[in-house]
Design a protein that fits this description.
Number of strands: 9
Structural class: alpha/beta
Strand content: 5-15%
Shape: globular
Largest sheet: 9 strands, mixed
Distance between the termini: 48 Å
Length: 413
């Protein structure tokens, strides 16, 4: 990743605080949320253009370390997963590049050239997913307002949902249009050949759509690949489709965390039919590549792995009936002590989840980590679930696997 890519996502008060070769470097580790900062610690990074950051000596040291088999501490997120036998983001991302599928990226890797940018432009989103938080979805503020209106204290909300509520001015947490980095992106659409973005929802995000339209108006969309982390619900918007068709290739990661009612429970207030209709529109476009599916594995969907595997395979066969489906990518939830994290389920349920026929090595590794580091906590799981059930007028009994429901209600056989 550091040989071709730069992630500029960590803004505070409208200024870039940290830049990384990939977004996973910004994930908190077992020491907590505060430990995600300062992993590269490039001085005065807010004043630097993406190219200047990419060329910085600290980035070069990172590249040298990786080239020489030295584990740079900045990459601890991936090292921890790999040490536990779980395929990391680094390994997932490197596979297709090494196969030469994306020639632009391959060129960047071989020549140490900045060709890919990973950004988050805002928290605008049409969904309020249960594993998310207000910083990544403005729709979450409806939940927070409902809780406050019912005299539920901020400290109790933060502790139960494992979120921070210091997001009153969310615009200052994302790239500003007058920033050095944004101006460079808008003026160098000929240089960046791969645009990566997560949200919020990129295809629902006003600022990101503005960037896409700049690529189109500059005549550079046809030489640019879109690699978005998207909830895949926006492809049935005709205007959006018209813009997307201008780009050389769409190679997205679809964030899908369940099938049918499980998806509707997690990705509130989405409707499963709206998702499948959107995917129909996606597959009608010609400039698409093999879709990838990413799932955050939690107590809410740990028994939906077989359904997820079948749905993932269906997406791949829709793209190419001959090619074998790519492996579904599973990720752990952050922060790691979130109520619905796997470590809070009892070991017997996690061991049962390992018996699913569609389980992948990556999912097996994450579940095994939940067993090995187990901190069973019935109260913590139930408190998170019921707090959001209250704000969303949902009832977990109508959505979750009966084994999870029985444990939550104390009906253990």
């Amino acid at each position: 990743m550091p040989h071709h890519n730069l992630a500029i996502k960590a803004y505070r008060n409208g200024k870039l605080q940290e830049a990384w070769p990939c977004c996973m470097m910004g994930n908190p580790d077992e020491l907590g949320m505060d430990n995600q900062w300062g992993r590269l610690d490039i001085p005065n990074v807010s004043d630097l253009t993406p190219q200047e950051i990419f060329d910085h000596p600290r980035m070069q040291l990172l590249r040298d370390n990786l080239d020489n088999g030295i584990r740079d501490n900045a990459c601890s997120t991936c090292w921890r997963l790999e040490d536990n036998g779980v395929k990391s983001y680094r390994e997932n991302q490197n596979d297709p590049y090494h196969d030469g599928i994306l020639k632009e990226v391959q060129e960047g890797i071989l020549n140490t050239k900045l060709v890919a940018i990973d950004i988050t432009t805002s928290n605008e989103c049409n969904l309020a997913c249960r594993m998310c938080y207000p910083g990544n979805s403005n729709l979450w503020f409806k939940d927070i307002k409902t809780l406050k209106d019912n005299d539920i204290g901020v400290e109790h909300i933060e502790e139960t949902l494992k979120i921070g509520l210091q997001f009153e001015n969310t615009k200052d947490r994302y790239i500003h249009e007058d920033s050095v980095q944004w101006q460079w992106l808008m003026n160098n659409t000929d240089k960046i050949k791969v645009i990566e973005c997560s949200g919020g929802e990129p295809l629902y995000d006003t600022k990101f759509i503005k960037l896409l339209k700049k690529y189109v108006s500059d005549g550079n969309a046809g030489q640019t690949i879109l690699n978005l982390h998207t909830n895949a619900t926006q492809f049935n918007n005709p205007k959006m489709v018209d813009t997307l068709k201008e780009f050389k290739l769409q190679w997205h990661a679809f964030s899908i965390d369940g099938v049918g009612k499980v998806w509707e429970y997690i990705r509130y207030p989405g409707k499963w039919k709206d998702l499948t209709d959107s995917l129909d529109a996606y597959f009608s476009m010609k400039n698409i590549y093999i879709p990838r599916m990413t799932t955050v594995l939690t107590a809410l969907n740990v028994f939906d792995i077989d359904n997820l595997k079948k749905f993932n395979d269906t997406l791949h066969y829709r793209y190419n009936k001959e090619a074998p489906p790519a492996e579904l990518n599973f990720q752990e939830v952050y922060p790691m002590d979130k109520g619905t994290a796997l470590i809070h389920l009892p070991k017997y349920l996690l061991e049962e989840a390992l018996l699913q026929t569609g389980i992948t090595d990556q999912a097996r590794g994450l579940i095994q980590m939940g067993i090995d580091n187990n901190k069973e906590n019935h109260q913590k799981v139930l408190a998170e679930i019921e707090m959001l059930d209250f704000t969303r007028n949902q009832n977990y009994r109508n959505f979750l696997d009966k084994r999870i429901v029985n444990w939550l209600e104390g009906n253990v056989l």
